[in-house]
Design brief:
alpha+beta; 6 helices; seven-stranded mixed sheet; 167 residues; single chain; Aminopeptidase
C-alpha cells in the first residue's frame, strides 16, 4: 500500500507543525539548541525571507513531515530540519521530502547542497547517501558544523544534467 503524500511549500500556515515535528525529534534524541529555538520560532525570518523554502508533507490534510531549504552564500543551500512524524517513518516520506528539496535547489540554480548529520541517527545518514550526498572529510568540515549534536557534514553536488533523485 502506498501513501498519497502531497508536498506543499512556502506556506507559513503550517509553522506550528514545522516547529512541533522538529522539536519532537531533536528533544527525543538530543537537546534543543538556541539556534534551533530561534529558527523554529521564526521560520519566516530565518528561512522564507532569505529566499529559502519550507516543504510540508501532507497525508489527507495531516502534516506528516517537513524540511527546509536554507539559502547560504555562493550558490549553496542547506537541507535542514528534515522531520517525519514517528507514526509515518519508514514509508518513504523523508525520501520524498529530500528529493523535492533537491529538485527545487536545481530549479533555483544552486550548485551544491550541504547538511549536518549525526551518526546517532543511522537511518538518516543512509537516506542521505541513497540520495547522493557524500561525506565531506577534511580538516575544515568540523569547523563548518554548527550544531553540537552533529558529527557529519555531507554535500550533494548538483550537476547540470537532469538526474532523477529517486533513481
Amino acid at each position: 500500500m502506498s501513501l498519497e503524500i502531497a508536498i506543499i511549500s512556502n506556506t507559513i500556515a503550517y509553522e506550528k507543525d514545522f516547529r512541533r515535528l522538529n522539536e519532537a525529534w531533536i528533544s527525543t534524541c538530543f537537546q534543543l539548541e538556541e539556534s534551533d529555538i530561534e529558527l523554529l520560532n521564526n521560520p519566516q525570518k530565518f528561512i522564507l525571507d532569505k529566499g529559502g523554502v519550507i516543504f510540508i508533507a501532507l497525508l489527507d490534510g495531516q502534516v506528516v513531515g517537513c524540511c527546509a531549504l536554507i539559502v547560504h552564500e555562493h550558490f549553496t543551500c542547506e537541507l535542514a530540519k528534515l522531520a517525519v512524524d514517528p507514526n509515518f517513518q519508514g514509508q518513504g516520506i523523508g525520501l520524498l521530502l529530500a528529493s523535492t528539496l533537491i529538485k527545487k535547489a536545481k530549479q533555483l540554480s544552486f550548485k551544491n547542497i550541504f547538511l549536518e548529520g549525526s551518526t546517532k541517527l543511522p537511518a538518516s545518514i543512509s537516506l542521505y547517501r541513497k540520495l547522493g550526498f557524500k561525506e565531506i572529510i577534511d580538516e575544515k568540515s568540523s569547523d563548518c558544523i554548527c550544531h553540537k549534536r552533529c558529527n557529519v557534514l555531507m554535500e550533494y553536488i548538483i550537476t547540470s544534467s537532469p538526474v532523477d533523485c529517486l533513481g
